[in-house]
Structure formats: structure tokens, C-alpha cells
Amino acid sequence: MGCFNKRAVIAQPAQTTSSTENLQHRSEEEELYEKLLEDDPLNVEALKMRLKWRLLLALCYETMGQLSKAKRLFKEILEERPLMLRALHGLALVMHKNLEGPAVFDMLNKALELARREKRVPEERNIGILIAQMHVVKGDLEEGLKRFQDLVNENPRDFRPYLCQGIIYSLLDKKTEAEEQFETYRALAPEEFPQRGFLDDVVLTAKTASQEQFQKEFNAEFSYRK
């Protein structure tokens, strides 16, 4: 998982029909997998594909601003896979856009406690990073910095908190501190990491854009969409 990951821009009005058709197509695919599961409840591949389509459908609804539908789907997915990071992230963003405030962190902290009880160490760390991200999305940059530093202290070899701290310092217009964090990120992130190119682009944007421009882009990504 990256940091404050960007998704596709909301479709323009001229593309609304295409988006609707995609949703209808995905609903038909989901019905197909549900039928396969009715015939064979132990069909693991059908179960995986059904979950994948439901996640894609929820992400589409969230992108289109249909937050109640997105929230319902994310919650249904989490009933089956309570530690699925993409669903937790999606639900957290939807709740943030719904102005649900502390409920976002109540939901994430419950998932964090579940990961700890079940000794799911990778999931526990990923959710911890997500919680820190959501503090930044909420606008509490200092709390975000503190939580990312705690994550660095727990595991100094994980490059993600350094990247996120660099982005926060860029939002605060602290270029020197940001560059220090980005240098550590570059030193630790493996070249073969699948999203390395994308994350390097994020770093470049943070370094070259003005503080005002970078803040505007960040706010546009995570603010409530009408």
C-alpha cells in the first residue's frame, strides 16, 4: 500500500453513460458469480472473483459520489473479510466524506484490535499506517506525523512511513525536512517494488509543486464530493 494513493479523476458528465454501463456490467458479473456459488458453495475461485467485483463496484460508487451505496458494499465486504485493507480504506474515505468524524477511527481501531488478537502482524501494521493516513486526510497533520514516527520506531526498515512523512512536511512547506524523509524512502524502497514508479512520481510532485498547489491537489482528492 502506498501513501495517500490517488485514484482516477471523477468522470466528466459526457462519460456518465459509460460509467453507468460499467456498473451494470459489473452487477451482471456479480450475479454470475453468485449463481456459481449457489451451485457450488465451495467454489473458491468464484468466491474470490465475487469479492473482487464487489470491491470494484464499491470503488466505482465512491468515485461517482454515490456514498451510501459504496458504504453498504464496503461494509458487506468487511463482514466476510474484516481485515481487507482496500475495503477498510474505502470505507474510511466514504465515512470521512460523509462527515462521520470519530466514527472513522472507531471503525479502524476495531480492525486494528482484531488484527492484534489474531496475531496478523502485516495487517496490523498496514491498518496502523491507514489510521495515520486518515489523521492527515482529516487535516490533523501533527497527529499524522506523530503516528508515522511511531511506526518508524517500530520498524525502521519499512519505507512507507518515511514517504508519508515527506508528503506531510511538503504540505507544511518544510522542504528540508521533506527531502530528508524522501531520501530515506528512496534508500529503503526496493527498485522492484511494483508501485515504485508511481510513488516516485508522488515524491516529484511533492518536491516541485508549490505548497499551495500541492495542498489544493491533496484537498481535491480527499474532500467530500457533492
TrEMBL record:
Pfam families: TPR_6. It comes from the Eukaryota. The lineage of its organism: Eukaryota, Viridiplantae, Streptophyta, Embryophyta, Tracheophyta. This is Protein SLOW GREEN 1 chloroplastic.
